[in-house]
Amino acid sequence: MKLSDSVQIVSGVGPKKQNRLNGIGIYTIEDLLHYFPRTYEDRSHFTQLSRLKAGEKACVKGRITGVENKKLKKNLSIIKIAVSDNEARVDLIFFNREHLLRGYKVGQEIKAYGKVKKNGKSTEIECSVIEFASADKSALGRIVPVYPSTEGLSSNEIEKIEKAALDDIVRQGEPGGMEDVIPADIRKRHKLCSVRYAIENIHAPSSRDALKIALYRLIFEEFFLMVCKAIYNGFKLRSNNAVRMAVSPAIPGIIERLPFSLTDAQRRAMDDIFEDMQGQNAMNRLIQGDVGSGKTVVAGIPMANCVLNGFQSIMMVPTEVLANQHFNSIKKMLSHEAIKIRLLTGSTRPAEKESIYEELGSGDIDILVGTHALIQPGIRLKRLGLAVTDEQHRFGVRQRLMLAEKGESPHFISMSATPIPRSLALAAYADMDISIIDELPKGRKAIRTQLFKKRDRQKAYAFALEQIKSGRQAYVVCPLIEASDEKNKSISVQHVYAELEAGIFKGHKVALLHGRLPQEQKQAVMADFENGITDVLVSTTVIEVGIDVKNASVIIIEGAEQFGLSQLHQLRGRVGRGECDSYCMLIQQGGNDESERLNVLVQSNSGFEIAEKDMLMRGPGEISGIRQHGYFKFKLADISRHVKILEAAKLCAKELFEADAELEGAQNTNLKAAVMAEAADEADIFVN
């Protein structure tokens, strides 16, 4: 028998059941054995009738003292079976189960399972199971798995099929393909059971302890394989013959000339980077910081250090607006150095592109900032030493590999202003080292956030008008470009723009910005806002990342409930960049259901704290635009609940690859096969 064999060979699985199993994704023995219960009912202990508690599920046994049938409606009958254990009495309740009247009589000993409730002074159990006390094959007295059911396949039927598979295959001998992917030394060190024991006890737990042991083993395996796959992909970026770059004597002078002082968190992150650049392995580091924490300078100075060591640096970002901003920031930062910096985007004219290509190939350009245009086939760099991406979650592993291929063994930095919970970072960036900038520059004021109901939205706009009259600027953000129906009209950017321009902001310069506008028009709109020509910018979320207008003091977000907390925090970060007090106004269109979630923004300015709460409320698959894709498709593991197991699995995987980078050892044969099989389907984990 092999795990790859069709599920039809399992005893009791005919053509009809096979089709139904196929309908829920079960085609092979392996699919079946990895179709895990969604929960369990502990029917292993019997409770005395006098100790039953309302709201709990319980197993009971006793003697039938009465049987009653009540007809309430044409299609509804209630069977009530009174049971006593000499200490107390309880009524077992069944709906539309009249066949029970033929089998269960006064004086018989029975056992049952169900949910306890109080009915006046009486105790009742709404029963799902009843059987005679002498029953051989009992559904009681054990821990019962509950499977996700579907039409034509109840949980009980799936349990029978799983049991048949275990009887036919596992207990008759080890099936082909059930080799343990976790090396024996790791299993021993972490007291992990064998895969066979885990599979048997996940489907048919012999005890509570056996179930815990099986669950721990399978959760550990899911995390362990995820990290191993990530590290395997990371090795493509992390060559062991990287160029070592010393810290140039000019670096302290560059830092000294900055118009601000670096925070301790920025210095720590920069120290991490410089240490990596001096090592023999190519750096693969994530710089994660809150909105406005100063990541650009943390990457910009190492880019200069790379150039001062005789190599080229490139920075790739997801949008042209962000590319222009980083280009200007780095140019200003390094204005005292003889470093040539150029910008390359989709809007760069053909003649200028050709010039940039030539200068890159000859080594005349030291630093190149741009968008996806940087990974076009025509790009050739003479000596690429460092590649940087900003807002890393928008680029997949393949795009990063294409960047890395521009040089022999370049160092790699990813930057993200999207704080995510530590547990999620451990999973999502399993192949990377992480530096966190958890400190804002001195002088930055906390943004005051307020939540408004739709009926009070004019109060928010009246406040914004006062800010504009005092010389400040404002953002208004909408979730939609245009409304698909009348209900969403009030939160479409086109409707709100027209309303504001002709209404409360009449006489002030109001501009419209969204993703469908031509690139040149978008740049012109942004330039006018940055230069103070425009008073109010009505926009979609295209302003979410990297826009830096210090005079903007207020942002109003329409339909705030349609955004995740982390995205709202990103949008809020468009203000509060200057010395003036800044404000964020959240306008809630719906009822009170979302108020608790949105009030998290009112109460906190910490992106990391907000991300933790966002994950608890919405789950890890929705944080910061991250979908349950690729490595995140766990069957049992939950990265918000099983952080300690994740940490242990990650540490084991890293130690294993440090000792055997190619997984050539005999003990790693099965693991290598699993990693190689999955690596072929490697997904771009972070996608928009």
Question: What are the defining features of this structure?
Answer:
alpha/beta, disordered C terminus, Rossmann fold, OB fold (Dihydrolipoamide Acetyltransferase, E2P), six-stranded parallel sheet, 688 residues, 20 strands
Summarize the amount of helix as a percent range: 25-40%
Rg from Cα: 31 Å
Q: What is the count of helical runs?
A: 22
CATH topology of the domain at 251-437: Rossmann fold
CATH architecture of the domain at 251-437: 3-Layer(aba) Sandwich
Q: Provide the β-strand percentage band.
A: 15-25%
Largest sheet composition: 7 strands, parallel
**CATH class (first level) name of the domain at 251-437:** Alpha Beta
What form results from the Cα inertia axes?
Answer: globular
The computed structural class is alpha/beta
**Widest sheet: strand order?**
10-11-9-12-13-8-14
What is the CATH homologous superfamily assignment of the domain at 251-437?
P-loop containing nucleotide triphosphate hydrolases
- What is the arithmetic mean of pLDDT? 86
Low-confidence stretches: 623-631, 680-688
> How many E-type strands?
20
- The rounded distance between the terminal residues' Cα atoms is 43 Å
